[in-house]
Design goal:
Length: 474
């Protein structure tokens, strides 16, 4: 593990890539497809002879010139889903065919912190502003992000260290349920104190636009990073990209926010020399159609660029091939030339330097192309996913019974204990040598006493490692 940090910038609604990174090399076709919403050539800042950005994104000009920006062309996936909700789940889970309830970062943190419920780390694994309900940090049993709905809530926690009250509760069933819910939400509030300390230990050294949504979020993130919080992944969100109508003005407002906020963010980090450690990456659930609609906007599409920012990119440039804007799929959408999981895999491998076996877990056993994003890790050789062994465990429910199922990779002594939601030990469910293969424990039979209906926690100890999950007695 290294000290590198990732900031995911979610552009909610589906960003119009053709009006963000304009294909000047094919301007005639671009202008013909977008007679009223196109950017005039005279209004573009040229990044090279083929591509330009609208001049109101001029804050990115110096970032590009300083070698701190890359554009990955035509990012998406095959058989693009045009639903905001489903496609957002696909980008968050990294699974485009079957529904997957866990996120790519949730799976990583679940492997990194297998005893998270009982023994969480001292700092939040991730911090998330907005996009509540997004799967990206979701594991099988826990969400691993300190998540707030808006920057005002995070600012309140950062400035005041507020926390849920779990002491002054009624002594009844309702109180027990309330305690469980409040304890569960402590993925957010457990870390109020350390976030407050990091925030107060630093300042913003450059001005941010006080009226811009993304600027408000990144200004807080900058203080947490500079204050030494230690969180590895942040996700911020900017709404407004579903531009079916009146796109020209709406798109300008939010792209100005992206450009100005990124400039302020990296200038701020550079004051303390931390800009080298922070990579920012935009994501959006899909792009827009290549042609405008009848309402001065664009409809849901497919391929769109990912923008990357940071000193660690070691030079500005373009990655991959731009989609042919005259060749469409059956839904009249641009055909992706890069899979979004290529970007994920490249960041995980060459920015965070993760072991190949962990990549196999995060990316659901699939391998993807490694893109040249300007950074690399020499400690990793050729990935080999053929020998991945780890303890797999989960609660299952059948015929009003509750079971714990284990898949043992090796022979080992295993102890399984059951706790109530207050952390009081209830029983030892198993303490014996288990051989490789599948094992199934009937919880109620193993306890050999009556259990009240409700939520419990089981903890598995084997090989010097602890694993815990919540479980329901029905």
């Amino acid at each position: 593990e290294n000290d590198n940090i990732l900031v995911i910038v979610r552009l909610k609604g589906g960003n119009d890539g053709l009006n963000t990174i304009v294909p000047v090399y094919d301007y005639a076709n671009y202008a013909n497809l977008r007679p009223t919403i196109r950017h005039q050539k005279s209004d573009l800042l040229m990044l090279n002879s083929d591509f330009g950005i609208p001049n109101y994104m001029d804050s990115l000009e110096s970032i590009w010139g300083d070698g701190k920006m890359k554009v990955v062309h035509g990012v998406g996936y095959q058989n693009q889903n045009l639903s905001h909700f489903r496609s957002s789940d696909i980008w968050a889970s990294a699974e485009s065919v079957n529904f997957e309830p866990t996120g790519w970062w949730g799976r990583y943190f679940e492997d990194l912190y297998p005893d998270y419920i009982i023994n969480p780390p001292e700092i939040p694994p991730a911090v998330q502003i907005g996009s509540i309900g997004n799967l990206v940090f979701e594991g099988d049993s826990n969400n691993y992000a300190f998540a707030v709905a808006n920057p005002e809530q995070l600012a309140n926690v950062a400035e005041n260290g507020t926390i849920h009250d779990v002491l002054d509760l009624p002594d009844c069933v309702y109180g027990d349920k309330l305690l469980f819910m409040r304890s569960t939400t402590n993925t957010t509030f457990l870390y109020a104190s350390v976030i407050h300390q990091a925030y107060m230990a630093s300042n913003n050294d450059v001005p941010y636009d006080p009226n811009a949504d993304l600027a408000a979020q990144l200004s807080i993130v900058a203080r947490l990073i500079k204050g030494g919080l230690g969180t590895k992944v942040y996700m911020v969100s900017l709404n407004g990209f579903d531009t079916h109508a009146n796109q020209v003005d709406t798109h300008r407002t939010i792209l100005e926010d992206v450009a100005n906020s990124m400039k302020s963010f990296y200038d701020d980090l550079a004051v303390t020399g931390m800009d080298d450690l922070v990579l920012s990456m935009t994501i959006s659930e899909f792009g827009r159609r290549p042609y405008e609609n009848g309402s001065g906007g664009t409809d849901h599409g497919a391929a769109s660029p990912i923008l990357l920012f940071g000193s660690g990119l070691n030079g500005s440039g373009f990655v991959g091939e731009h989609p042919d804007i005259t060749v469409w799929d059956v839904n009249d959408n641009l055909i992706p030339t890069s899979d979004f999981r290529d970007v994920y895999s490249s960041v995980l491998t060459n920015w965070f330097c993760l072991d190949p076996t962990i990549l196999d877990l995060i990316l659901l056993g699939q391998t993807y192309e490694t893109l040249d994003l300007g950074f690399s890790c020499e400690i990793l050789g050729t990935p080999d996913f053929s020998n991945v062994t780890r303890l797999i465990h989960r609660p299952t429910y059948q015929d009003n019974r509750t079971y714990i199922e284990l898949q043992m990779p090796v022979t080992a002594n295993v102890t399984i204990k059951l706790y109530d939601i207050l952390g009081k030990e209830i029983a030892t469910l198993k303490n014996e040598l288990l051989f490789p293969g599948r094992h199934k424990i009937d919880v109620m039979a193993a306890v050999d006493t009556r259990l009240s209906f409700g939520q419990y926690i089981y903890r598995i100890t084997t090989g010097g490692q602890n694993y815990s999950k919540s479980i329901l007695i029905k």
